[in-house]
Design goal:
This protein is α+β, with helices and mostly antiparallel strands. It is globular and about 35 Å long. About 25% of the residues are buried. The protein has helices at about 5-25, 60-65, 70-90, 105-115, and strands spanning about 30-35, 40-45, 50-55, 95. It has a single domain (about 5-115), classed as Nucleotidyltransferase, domain 5, CATH 3.30.420. It contains 4 helices and 4 strands; from the N terminus they run αβββααβα. Helix 3 runs parallel beside helix 4. It has a 4-stranded mixed beta sheet with strand order 3-2-1-4. It is about 45% helix and about 20% strand.
């Protein structure tokens, strides 16, 4: 990957994060990272800098359910799992941080399944 592409992604992610800080109002942030083979999600409390809950397609409990970590079905499972773990920690409302990715495909599927799991954003 060229440095120009990396810088563009960093700028785009920073732009999204700055916009989220304006509407945040103290809620934790549901951050998504999408690679070519897996998808990851974290609920982060930006005030303390702590990760409250995390889920990814690399976990053993998801390995048996999914065929690959790089499709919409895997993103749906990760969304359900992150919602359940966040609810266990007492988190009900979050702001969705899509990072440098467009709200489409795997990112949208993860967000929709997290909403179905009980998270509000």
């Amino acid at each position: 990957m060229s440095t120009k592409t990396l810088n563009q992604e960093q700028r785009r992610a920073g732009r999204v994060r700055r916009r989220l800080q304006k509407v945040n109002s103290g809620r934790p942030r549901l951050s998504v990272f999408r690679s070519s083979k897996n998808i990851y999600a974290q609920v982060i409390d930006d005030l303390t800098g702590a990760t409250l809950a995390a889920a990814s397609t690399l976990e053993k409990e998801l390995k048996g359910k999914i065929k690959t970590g790089a499709d919409v079905a895997a993103a749906v499972e990760v969304g359900k799992l992150i919602a359940a773990r966040a609810k266990e920690k007492g988190v009900g409302k979050v702001v969705f941080d899509r990072g440098p990715y467009i709200y489409h495909g795997r990112v949208k599927a993860l967000a929709d399944s997290a909403r179905e799991g009980g998270l509000e954003f």
